[in-house]
């Protein structure tokens, strides 16, 4: 009788404990469903933030490294206003010769290649730059695979820089924003001399115009401390 009473008390207590602390299958499934919904809502945001950080880091790294190369080259080859650019705008062999003379020894490049109009350099981290227009226009891409069709990715995967230490020339005189952006400087985010408005009129480019063309978006990022602005026109 004594043992039977103990068994009943013990058994009843264990059953009550499991009922109070355990979870039914339905409750588990509901919890997992909620977790899945939250993950589905937050994951795209996390991925987007990661892409932004990767882009910001890559742009700042390229800008720092390319201009360090310019400074080192100046020490050996003289001031940039005396450098000899390629004498054909889109001749990859002549652009390569310009690159070899002024940049090759000062950049860590994994490999290079040519297209019918540009000389491309690929860095050890997989990013790349295409050089054309006498060696003055530089297209930096987060990955070399984007170079082939870079025009599709301008402002998202590829970003335009320019190297115009004597200024852009032509009608781009010393009063223009573009001239001030490039003159006596190294490789800088591209700023066109003029911009064509929706009504067809052509005006000198100003800071306010930087939002009007993806080729100018690199300058937007630089002006924001190499951080993607919250009102950036494109989704990365």
UniProtKB/TrEMBL annotation:
Residues 45-236 form the DUF6613 domain. Keywords: Membrane, Transmembrane, Transmembrane helix. The chain crosses the membrane at residues 23-43. InterPro entries: DUF6613 (IPR046721), N_methyl_site (IPR012902), Pilin-like (IPR045584). Gene3D superfamilies: Glycoprotein, Type 4 Pilin (3.30.700.10). It comes from the Bacteria. It holds the Pfam family DUF6613. NCBIfam families: IV_pilin_GFxxxE. This is Prepilin-type N-terminal cleavage/methylation domain-containing protein. The lineage of its organism: Bacteria, Candidatus Scatousia.
